[in-house]
Amino acid sequence: MNILITGIYGFLGSNLANELQKDNCVIGFYNQNKKNKINQSIETFDDLELIEFSPEIIVMCHAAVVSGQESMSKNKLLEVNVSLTKKIMEHFPLAKCIYVSSVSVYGNTLNEINEDTIVNPVSEYAKSKYLGEQIVLKGTKNIIVRLPSLYGSGMKENTLIPNYCNQAIDKNVIEVWGKGERLQNYIHVDDVVDLIIKIINYQNEKSFIALGVSDKEFSNYEVATIISNETKSEIIFVNEDTSHSVNYNNKKTKKTFNWMPVVALNEGIKNYIGWKKTQ
Question: Distances in Å between the alpha carbon of 189 and those of 23, 96, 253, 265?
Fold first, then answer.
């Protein structure tokens, strides 16, 4: 199968490319950098006009991402998450598109979130991702994959898991805000790669919203405890945390694509810490 991956040098894009190239013809599109390594057999381009290739599938992993302390202008978010998405869609109008989005589009709802939950994007990032979704959903068989916190070896350094791990490794102390009660969902990159491969092979007749979340939410304190046990670090509580907790139900996604996340958080974090210590 001919597959184009956009954002191929990103965390998810590179992991997906290295797995898909085993059984498919994969090429990549990138915008700015070549941070992560991909198989040398994969040809990559930074200009759509240079791609002499007719993809059957496009997996859109490109994104201007805001997380942790990182900030980004509204114009930059719209340029990458909306305008570039539209440009790619127009350049390859016959391809089936899988667009990687974010659970942030649901906003600050306190109710259990499922595939049919009404979105309410609040941040500029979430708004830009939702606008990108709407462009992709104009196609009749395209699929949106909304993800929570994605983790694994090579992940970005400005989210909670790497932040806690860096504190534990460097200072032997993990600072947890408030009482650590905030619940969040974490999904390992290997599980997301598996989901996307199942979606690629799924013969759908209409568009679909997939929710790529794990089976359980973990509190910040539980995450810190896993890391503390692996690094023999002390947990201390600081400041306050007024962020809301989240809870998901993705039974429809699991049933539709015959998919089940298998990487337990404690094992995923253990492997991540082992990887970090080699860097």
Answer: 19, 22, 17, 11
Q: Does the structure show a pLDDT above 70 at 66?
A: no
Q: Is the pTM here over 0.90, yes or no?
A: yes
Non-local CB neighbours of 159 within 8 Å, separated by 6+ positions: 67, 68, 149, 151
Closest CA to 187 of 265, 271, 276, 71: 265
pLDDT at 69: 45
Beta-carbon contacts of residue 236 (< 8 Å; ≥ 6 apart):
173, 174, 175, 176
| 138-182 residue pLDDT tens | 988 999 999 999 999 999 888 999 999 999 999 999 999 999 999
